[in-house]
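tool=predict chain=A
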Amino acid sequence: MNKVSVIILNYNSSGLLFYCLRSIQRTLPSTPLEVIVVDNASIDGSRVQLAQWQTQQPFAPLNIQVILRDHNNGYAAGNNHALRAATGDAVLILNPDISVQAGAIDALVQYLTKHPHVGIVGPKLLNPDRSLQYSCYRFPTLAMPVYRRTPLGNTANGRRQVRQYMMMDWDHASSRRVDWIMGSAMFVRRSVLETIGGLDEQFFMYFEDTDWCRRAGNAGFEVHYHPAATMIHYHQRQSAELGLGMLFSRLAREHVLSGIRYFAKHRPGLLQQPHE
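tool=predict ok
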């Protein structure tokens, strides 16, 4: 693998973005990197900060390309903008709230090199306290949004279904094939992009990663989880409101709308059994 493109989509997260870039700078892999930062029309001063970084080069020797967008039309559209500019043999998509740990990128590169049938691989994500963060899943059923957003999730059957969906029946200590991985950190082979294209921009936020992994699987690529690559995710599940509370949260509403779009798009495939 001659080069890896690292893509980071920023929206009002300049502080987190600084530490994300610093973590990459501290853990440079043996494979050359290009880093593309896309700003989705932030209003928190990120754009001024990015301009200063381009001038002062605080992350040298990283080669950072900055793309400033004049509007925010979602996670998929912002990342696709960078995917069109990326020239690497593989692309590492990161959220700005990710801290890359030593050896993680090398481990992902080695995994794709050794497993040519794998198109997308995700690292092991840890919470800030170093506990496991569940970041790979089985494909959701139509009932899963109900279990995760209503008191039905607290029933015995609901808890069992959620545990299965989140793969909590496995210790996440070994590499294995999964249905999909969280879009916060995804390592994608270029041939996947050339075969199925980028993220589906009908998803403003949420389910675009689920959709991408399902499309990759349908095209013959496997999706894997590889815990030898470790990253810390400073993540809060902002869409987790239950019941009537979600009516007053834009993020929760976007989550529901994206779920409706996902199930409508993949309706014929929803009867397929997920990978064990």
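DSSP finds nine helices and twelve strands in the chain. The chain has one domain: 4-139+172-241.
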